[in-house]
Amino acid sequence: MTVSARRRRTGLAAWGFALPFAVLFAVFMLLPVASSLYMAFTDMHGADLKTPWAVNFVGLDNFVAVLGDPKFQQAAGNTLYFVGVAMPLTLGIALLLAVLLNSGLVWFRSVFRVGFYAPVVTSIVAVAVVWRFLLQPDFGLVNSALGMVGIDGPRWLTDEVWAMPSLIVMATWRNVGYSMVILLAGLQGIPRDLYEASAIDGAGAVRQFRSITVPLLRPTLLFCAVITGIGYLQFFEEPFVMTQGGPLGATNSVAYEIFNQFGFGNYGVSAAMSYVLFVAIVILSYLQFRLLRTEK
Amino acid sequence: MADDDAPRRRRLTPRAVVLNVALLVGLAASIGPLIWMVVSSVKPEGEIRQFPPTFLPDQLTWANYTELFATLSFPRYFLNSVVVAVIVTVGSVLFSAMVGYALAKLDFPGRRTLFALVMGTLMVPGMVTFVPLFVLVANLDLINTYAALILPFLAAPFGVFLMRQFMLDIPDELLDAARVDGAGEFRTFFAVVLPQTRPALATLGILTFLGSWNNFLWPLVAVQSADKYTLPVALALYSTGQNTVQYGLLVAGATVIVLPILIVFLALQRHIVQGISTTGLK
Question: Beta-carbon neighbour count of residue A70 at 10 Å?
Fold first, then answer.
């Protein structure tokens, strides 16, 4: 067999391997990504569902309308509030747990690791239902426990001030384990003798944490921050199940607003909102790379 | 328990005691809600609403589950969730392994373009594509079908990326040896490559199954008739559509979704946690 015939055969076999994925990927990923850009610049509505090409090109109208819409502005503010609090909280607790579990003082490390990770495998819808029950103001576990120590707990999910913190706590509870497990693996990759050497030089635990742990863990922290940030920017199930975006829009998120506009049949507007969210995801990831990248 | 506890001596210093007690409190906060979910699901509604609450049920009842499975269509939703998750898992893991192998080990025209497209869409979230995807699926006349729930998830860029990374580590000599023995590309793939990547296949399979089982947005959008609902869709719509909320029924529904996954997780926890860690470090 000649070299070129052999190469042709390898090429054919390779495309044979790639074909099922490539076809599905082109139809169900590349096509929607491309057409969402198209849709965002049209006045497409539910009535145009079967005639998606017979719509009017409206330029930037959708984006202007979206950015000027007070409801979207509120949802964007809520989303920033959610991400701005839940992300540092999640990563902070995850890092604390990982460092403690790695300290060598913990008796049953694998029990703790499994226990803290367990919420990660749960369905958000299911645990949101459970948390609605926990936070029920009259007989929920949280207010019952507070009542026993004489505190009259708020009506968590129907209170404009408390609704968002409730969702933040629930999301943090659900997601801490993921970053914890990855950070723990990162910590185990830091050579022990670095700590021993610095201890001989007189460095205490805090100094070691700042000068060894954090710098060497930067890439892992970055990974956790990006994954957590992308997930949190799209938070949707929590308000859908727990508050329906209320009270008075206090927990309405950008993702929930995209879904609602889609439900109203405003496909063009909805696609434009999706792009705003996507740009936010890209910007957040970029900022995290700038902030956490390994110093040269 | 696991062997990573074994080599260290359990020291009983005041610091260790304080630390372990603090972690135990944290552990209670972490798994407490899940335990509360399970114990509440076998209490009658009256006991659920009483103050102070009971921990273990005074009066054990299966009424919530009977209603879910006999009156509401939970057997159907459960079956839908299983069918979709199994097909998505098997299909997408197989396709990811196949294309991952081609990208890692075979030279073919279009390889760089394909890989660039996969990497470019790695971070594109479902929130951004679901509207055009809905329009597409509607025009294929697939709304309210299993195909709508399954097909979009068979092509998973993350899976391809993961498989490619693992396939890169397979030594070329191993593949050459199989080819010298006269094995064709497909024999080589199934007899040599796949067995080599078993841990990666398992990790990706578990992650894919979990993702499908817990998926909510797309099934909510893609099916409108109840006979195609998956469990999360059914529970979410039921929990927001009730006039008077029956918490017993809702936590029983949540238990049906979460408990099977938790049991599997506990059985496979070492592999899962290790798998997750490696995906983070790759």
Answer: 8
CB-nearest partner of A24 from B154, B239, B270: B154
Query: Could you tell me the sign of the dihedral formed by the alpha carbons of B78, A127, A175, A246, in that order?
Result: positive
The domain locations on chain B are 3-65, 73-281
Does residue A11 lie within any of the structural domains? no
Of B24, B32, B21, B271, the C-alpha closest to A112 is B24
Q: How many domains does chain A have?
A: 1
Distance CA A85, CA B81 (A): 33
- Whole-angstrom Cα distance, residue B274 to residue B282? 12
Whether residue A21 is contained in a domain is answered as: no
Considering only CA atoms, which of A235, A242, A236 is closest in space to residue A131? A242
* Domain around A214: 61-292
CA distances from A213 to A192, A199, B38, B163 (A): 11, 13, 39, 30
Does domain B73-281 bear CATH number 3.30.450.20? no
Q: How far apart are CA A24 and CA A3, in angstroms?
A: 32
Q: Return d(Cα A119, Cα A165) in angstroms, integer.
A: 19
Instruction: Walk along chain A (296 residues) and give the pLDDT tens digit of each residue.
Output: 577 777 787 888 889 999 999 999 999 999 999 988 899 999 999 888 888 888 889 989 999 999 999 999 999 999 999 999 999 999 999 999 999 998 878 888 889 999 999 999 999 999 999 999 999 998 899 999 898 888 888 999 999 999 999 999 999 999 999 999 999 989 988 888 888 888 888 888 888 888 888 888 988 898 899 889 999 999 999 999 999 998 999 999 999 999 999 999 999 999 999 999 999 999 998 888 888 775 54
- Beta carbons of B230 and B122 less than 8 angstroms apart: no
Q: How close B245 gets to chain A, by Cα (Å)?
A: 10
Contacts of B95 in chain A (CB under 8 A): 20-21, 24
Cβ distance A10 to B106 less than 8 Å, yes or no, reads yes
